[in-house]
Amino acid sequence: MTEIAITRTTTPNQPPADETLTFGKVFTDHMFRMEYDAGRGWHDPRIVPYGPFTLDPATCVLHYGQAIFDGMKAFRGGDGLVRLFRLPDHARRLNRSAQYLCIPELDTDVVEESIRALVEIDQRWVPSLPGTSLYIRPTVIATETFLGVHPSSSYIYYVILGPVGAYYKEGMNPVRILASDTLVRAVKGGLGAAKTAANYAASLYGAEQAQQQGYTQVLWLDGVEHRYLDEVGTMNIMLRIDDEVVTPPLNGAILAGITRDSVLRLLRDWGLRVSERPVAIDEVIAAAQASRLEMWGTGTAAVISPVGELGYKGERYVINGGRTGELTQRLYDTIVGIQYGAAPDPYGWTRLLGNRLGG
Ligand SMILES: *Cc1c(COP(=O)(O)O)cnc(C)c1O
Q1: Is the full-model pTM beyond 0.90?
Q2: What's the confidence (pLDDT) of residue 1?
Q3: Per the domain annotation, does 189 fall within a domain?
Q4: What is the residue with the minimal CA distance to atom 15 of ligand 1?
């Protein structure tokens, strides 16, 4: 096990009341960090008080975006215990993102330990109101000082934590999404399969245009034909057409969502017919018009986000009467039940804090 040096803050903050929590605005007292330098590898793993970095203006991440992150959550159950959801999977995915960005590999045991140790130290920040959680953000940034395009020789890996509010305060509400036939988030052969800063920069303009037209998210279509579904906002997209559940394959243009994986596992275990195959937008529209369609996004933030309306080429299509579908609701309830320890965890997805051998 890695030795993590710990420096505790001398000025701890008071966590805000659970009822007031939103997303991504409040952070805990501590952060984890370690550095990489060519020749030395990753070194100096430590937990320190939360605080700013000092970066030279020529630090390469600020110019060329060599940066990756991941996002996962810890949940406090009705039993008061804290559970980490699919930690090893998130640690592995961080390394896959690193490969795409020419960032040196991290030891996944160290990544897991960094998150575990940090959540343990700041565990009083894990909220307990139903639906709330502690969001965990491991990040790697390139820190060499130079102008010019090549991989950095130095990096900071760090982890920050923040309590976040319930995504659905008054039951699930379906979102309205706009399929763009011009803008593209990522293409096959690009960085779509990495959780990297560039993909979010690429999505801002489209998201703003969608919002101006009254939609909450963009349904990104493939970058070559603008015809096949890729993702929705920062979520994977899934549909039920009659008795088949369909989701786009992991073709290099989309992220391998861990919620996507959890949902596929459940659906297969429930005996449903599941296909990972390309889905054309015309197929979706035809199914919506024939009322044969349920549609939802999957991601750590919302778990499941039902889609109630689809915009495309100036037309609006209502999906499932604008209501949350039965299967959508069942998936949400099942995953949330496992996350908070209210339901059994037959897949070993959760790990109790303070129990290194598993939940
Ligand atoms: C994070 C993310 C997802 C969802 O992944 P989860 O592991 O389920 O949280 C999907 N698409 C994109 C682009 C993402 O950034």
Answers
A1: yes
A2: 55
A3: yes
A4: 234
